[in-house]
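Structure, all two chains, one model.
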Amino acid sequence: VENFREFDLIRWIQSQVPADDPLVRVGIGDDAAVVANRDAATLVTTDMLVEGVHFSLAEATPRQVGWKAMACSVSDVAAMGGRASAAVVSCALPRGFGQDNARGLVLGLLECAREFGVRLVGGDVTATGGPLVLNVAMLGDTEGRPPVLRSGARADDALLVTGALGGSRLGSHLRFTPRQAEALALAEGYALHAMIDVSDGLAIDLHHILEESGVGARVEAKRIPISPDAHRAAEQSGRSPLGHALADGEDYELLFTLDDAEAARLLAAPPFETQVTRIGTITASGAILVHPGGGEQPLERRGWEHSL
Amino acid sequence: VENFREFDLIRWIQSQVPADDPLVRVGIGDDAAVVANRDAATLVTTDMLVEGVHFSLAEATPRQVGWKAMACSVSDVAAMGGRASAAVVSCALPRGFGQDNARGLVLGLLECAREFGVRLVGGDVTATGGPLVLNVAMLGDTEGRPPVLRSGARADDALLVTGALGGSRLGSHLRFTPRQAEALALAEGYALHAMIDVSDGLAIDLHHILEESGVGARVEAKRIPISPDAHRAAEQSGRSPLGHALADGEDYELLFTLDDAEAARLLAAPPFETQVTRIGTITASGAILVHPGGGEQPLERRGWEHSL
């Protein structure tokens, strides 16, 4: 594995980034970037991926890892009803990682950035004696609209989710589509009350909404859209496909609430092709999973949480 | 070492952060933070610290590490002539790091944030099988002024530096003062042409200015302010104090240029107590170190660069 130097990598990255973007007043290569504001406030989020925790280099190429890191942050901005604008990326590269792998990471980051209209405006590169670590901090804005928070759900709201859930660890966690287009169409066209992206798992992310909003929910098990990968994962694990859909996480779908009439209007003529499904109703308190036969059980707050 | 959980730590962090800040429309706990814009553009920078590369937990407490991570990013924003406003922090905590150490990190981050007017608005916490990694992404603004770039130096400019340089590894890299107040006073009161913070080392950071500006410099060795720590480091290393001042890095002083008359006005009555010294002159090309006896040698581009 060849040695290469930090500043050579940075110069190469500069050569890969489009010049003359009106939003980018100062890009890669100074002490900080300068990004023109499109709105009265700026969304900001940060997401750290660690080899051995969020991905394995045995399973994922550096390009896929870069793509995922950027996409996770686009998804976070989308979950606010926002549009991602600019990112700064830090990476700690294991000794011997090599220039080709480092460039692969960057190409994956840039591929995702291009697809979702994000400018890569700066970063930090360091060596590490440990595993690969990649951090994306993302700016965005809500195009003048109020952000859609986790805390806005109200009793009697409809609870909806995009796409299908479960089984992400079979590979979709590396190639999901962050639902930015869908989030923008929803935030523009409908009176959303609350929204989150499903990163920790449907059950736990629903609990985030319930806790922040001070409400409860009844979720109909039979309505939860279960992905083909959840069925495949269940064959391997011996657990149920529903269990995978509830707890696997890294689906990066949108989970959101809005009132009954708005939900009906949305479901009658969705403004996008992506599947969208009503899976339940917000209630005053409690979190209940209703089984197809009518039996009920508490919907536990379980999913992906780091034990530290 | 006790186990503790990600969301418990996040709730504790929320409890440590001041509520009701008009700049923070949405703080810790949603998919993204929302920060009100103070200016037409936003500065953004990111800085990653890795245990074993940027600090050692044998030498530094978690609180010092947190403080340093925040301070490095304040320094980057200051080097643009800007004021830091809000930060998002990611950390990868080694298994068994423990709740007390994690809280220590956060207390150090918040101590520095308070001192420099920064809001901690969000973050990401993950486990790692490797060393501690801490990333701070910082927003800021230039209060309506044009940012001070690395690329603005002109031939015949005076070259100045704040503070004294060298020997940071004896401990000052953990307790430096980011020169935000000085940077703001300079940017407000004087026509700065170029500025950078000395993180990689005087020689290499000067070269960043020279390369970006397409100019050269003559630096007078006898004028370089050498810190007491550089002398102590030289006793241990057998190298010269000047060598330490030129190459050690992590001084986090400001290196800047402005025209002769402005420099004279500044030096006649500096707007702050911090030492400020003219160390040389920008020239059309080349980088020369002038020794006290009059001898000259090329000022090499050396200092702290990661070999990856």
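The first strand of chain B starts at residue 24 and ends at 26.
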